[in-house]
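It is worth pausing here to work through a concrete case rather than discussing structure prediction in the abstract. The textbook approach is simple: state the sequence, then state the predicted structure, then interpret. We follow exactly that order.
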Amino acid sequence: MLPLRENSESNLSRPLLMQEIERYEQEQDDEDIDETNAKILQDGIDMTKYSEFTSTNASGGEDIRYDNLYATLSYSLLQNRDLSLLSQNEQQLEQLQEHHISNLATIEEEYKQDLSNKRQRIEEINVLRKRRQVVDFKPVNDYLNDRWKDGIKSVVELGVEAKRMDMDMH
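Step two, the predicted structure:
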């Protein structure tokens, strides 16, 4: 088994979480992060910074970067585990997807039926309104027609009376 770090005795006194936090902060300090040029990773963890497994030491020799090796190994194991779980659950996921699609189809049909019912109800209401207008308009129309006829009669009678008076005067 490979040793975790060269100075593992000094690291044993600090909790592992604190070591990881310090390592993360150190990596953040080392990197020059520009918010406008920050790249959004869509394919998971960016493994490029963990792909260098050796580094040159002060004496010119090469040191093995165990942190990078362990990070890459852990990532690979987790990715393999995720893929195996996905393949095991593929049939269940497919069934769930089909179930949800059928539920969505049912909901869509219900919405279409509701929409059809509402349109039919709107049409019925419009027909009722038109009938009421016709029924309510008929008495008013009859009254106005009678008044118009009476008005014409009175104008004709006044015209006849005026002509008669004019003839009596001559």
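Step three, interpretation. The beta strands are 54-56, 62-64. Residues 94 and 100 are 10 Å apart (CA to CA).
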